[in-house]
Amino acid sequence: MVILNGDRAHSVITDSEGRFRFRGVVPPYDLTVVDPNSWWERLIEFKGLTRANPALSMSGAVEYFRLATLLGAIGGVGFPLPDGASIEVGLTQAESDIFLVTIDEVTSFSTFAWEGPSSYSGSLVGVFTQRHPDGTLDFLKAGAITPFEIEEGEERAVDLVLDRPVETETTTISADAGAYGSWWATEFASFRIFGEDFPGRPHEVMPPLPELTTIPAEGARISLIGFLPGFRAAAVSIVDAVPGGETVLELPSEIVLDTLSPEPDAELATFTPRLEWTPVQGATSYVVEVEGGDTFSKWILPPTVNFLELPDHGEGVFRLRSGRSYFWTVVATMDAGHTPDELADPDVTVRPRYWAGSREYMAQGSFSIEP
């Protein structure tokens, strides 16, 4: 179901191909997409749209994927894997989201995805890594099947042997968490092996990478995440690693984004509270998420507003409930290409979330509704 301007009287059900139509719409306008197959209330709302032909996704980015299933048999590695070790497999595809599988058995069914034509042609790449308690990540072995072709919907058994060393370099990481130094960590945002960009874990709370870090010779991106006391707010910066040199990551010396209202853990007497946060200069969009009980919803807002009045769409769509506690998060995205209109661009099939130079600020709050 798609709702226009928050009014369920102006809602339509998409056709079998996910298409919908509203007539006489005056921009700017809001569109709410409701997941009809979710067992809980789940929606995403794009605010301040102006384009005439939006393409919307429940994830908040434009994604059109082809899917296929592989029964992967991995060779060249002893099983069971040692502690901290994993095998990740991906399909090389320019400007494509990366879908991984972590294999802890000899074989594992895996679903892979790519954007574009129903026939995929590229390479199937696998890498064997091991994470150590001190944060070090070792790139042990890799392998590839080139050329590799598969059709959408196909199910196939594939043997992938990891028998080639990964060429590596080192980089010296210099990190300054600024105002976000209550707890901070550096991490791989992504790394490239045999032409495949494998995503790292830029938001995970893990031991920082060592100052002298080994990276694949093909390239890597390093993230710095820092938190305020109590983890109430955070900042993330991602840059290209500098092989053989210094990789410098810095976060602001002053707090950039924080929640203003409601007060933390406030008990509210309204079912439509107003969430407000500090405006961030240079933001391209704000993303607000609300979660509690059987509710998870997301709003993508233009950078011109720094508040959201939660709606009451009724049962099965979005409605706060008395006696329930809720958590909410606001993210300020600083990179180009993330306005609501750009995220609804039908000509962009896949938009990676992180890349070199990426910067985001996050803050979170909580509230409850009176019984």
How would you describe this structure to a colleague?
With 371 residues, the protein is an all-beta fold. It folds into 3 domains: 2-63 and 256-369, Sandwich (Immunoglobulin-like); 66-161, Immunoglobulin-like; 168-250. Helix content is 1%, strand content 49%. The protein has 1 helix and 25 strands. Strands 1, 2, 3, 4, 12, 13, 15, 16, 19, 21, 22, 24 and 25 form a 13-stranded mixed beta sheet that branches. The chain is globular and about 60 Å long. The two termini are 30 Å apart.
Topology, element by element:
Elements: E1 2-4, E2 7-12, E3 29-34, E4 41-49, E5 66-75, E6 85-91, E7 107-114, E8 119-131, E9 137-151, E10 155-161, E11 168-176, E12 183-193, E13 196-199, E14 212-216, E15 220-227, E16 233-240, E17 246-250, E18 259-261, E19 266-268, E20 274-277, E21 285-292, E22 295-301, E23 307-309, E24 325-333, H1 340-343, E25 359-369
Parallel strand pairs: 4-22, 5-10, 11-17, 19-25
Antiparallel strand pairs: 1-2, 1-3, 3-4, 5-7, 6-8, 8-9, 11-14, 12-13, 12-15, 15-16, 16-25, 18-20, 20-23, 21-22, 21-24, 24-25
Tell me, what is the CATH class of the largest domain? Mainly Beta
Q: How many separate domains make up the residues?
A: 3
CATH architecture descriptor name of the largest domain: Sandwich
Q: Estimate the mean pLDDT confidence.
A: 86
- Low-pLDDT windows of residues: 94-101
Helical residue percent band: under 10%
> How many extended strands?
25
The end-to-end distance, rounded to whole angstroms, is 30 Å
Sheet-strand content, in percent, reads over 45%
Number of helices: 1
Shape, principal axes of CA atoms: globular
User: Which structural class fits the helix and strand makeup?
Assistant: mainly beta
Mind describing the biggest β-sheet? Answer: 13 strands, mixed
- Name the CATH superfamily classification of the largest domain: Immunoglobulins
Estimated radius of gyration: 22 Å
CATH topology of the largest domain: Immunoglobulin-like
The ordered string of helix (H) and strand (E) elements is: EEEEEEEEEEEEEEEEEEEEEEEEHE
